Description:
mainly alpha, globular, four-stranded mixed sheet, 416 residues
Amino acid sequence: MNSFTIVFLVALTLSFSVQFWLAQRHANYVAKHRFAVPEAFKNTVSLEAHQKAADYTLEKSRLGNIDSVLGVVLLLILTLGGVINWAFEFWAATVQSPLIAGLAALATVFLVMTLLELPTSVYQTFIIEEKYGFNKSTPQQFVKDQLLQMVLVAAIGMPLIALILWVMDSIGSLWWLWAWAILISFSLLISWLYPTLIAPLFNKFTPMEEGSLKDRIQDLLARCGFSSQGIFIMDGSKRSGHGNAYFTGLGNNKRIVFFDTLINSLDDEELEAILAHELGHFKCKHTIKMLIANAVMTLVSFAVLGWLIDQQWFYNGLGVEQPSHAAALLLFMLVSSSFTFFIQPIVAYFQRKFEFEADNFASNNAKAEKLISALVKLFEENASTLTPDPLYSAFHYSHPPAAIRIANLESQIRPA
């Protein structure tokens, strides 16, 4: 057995075992605290809503565990089981151009993975989400969404991968610098185009009507020095009962978006506070910081791939007999998460830090008590557990746990 095969199996086993253990800790912790509403929420959240959130979390956790096991099995079948090797050999023998053959092999593997992941998505949407009253999507809408996503991947993702493969084949030893620059430039372009070109393919965006809410929001934007291309209501209710708000886009193509479900559940001051939190991310330059961090991590990844691409043991250790740039790219994308899993707490720590900073910004530009009441409503309406396992949340939560977040906001309330 190739030495790297052993290294890969150890990394995969360790990362999966820890992830499964954390999920079990989380499920046990939620189940243990299911029978009483946490002290901080006793006056605002009913026991029935708290138990619904616990049960919803437990069902998603069980499905997540099954999905994780199937994901590991699929990864082993694709790599050591020889499916990737077969795909590249088949297309190399079928298509004369190495670039087209490599692209076709990548597309084949991605298509297989997408189709095998569909049952989980179907169960999540039409069993779990339906059971807890969140699913609003029809089977026709679900199929349409899946097909549209695949079309977008083919129309946008495949040309990008083809360009990166061409760079890998043509530029020389520093190809990874050029590939990195292309990928980052593409990501920025898509972020800029997303609000007006991509998002409307999935949802309808209606400009917010004139009235007290729009006046309040425009006043908040003026106070915060934020300019956008408009305030829009998105028809999120056609797929889900979950609510949210966000701003999207870059540069002069930024939009503020409220889910219609959010508009229907919060009052004007609560909506103002939620938006103030989102603007806090902008004013605290969190978006820029995350873009820079992502660019650095992507550069490091490409540099590592630039070294691995010439290592025969890398291919052989993952079940591929004939080295190729396309195979190296695919293998790296599939197995890298097994080696980077333990970086997650670091990333999650900074994400939670940014959420605290955005909450503090919102408290200075809206009413902290209104942000608290809005968040409590969202926790309840979205069936978000109020009692996550601390260690699990340290790995997986991009937002602070509810009780910690509310306590921080309460400290920001100014005396009347």
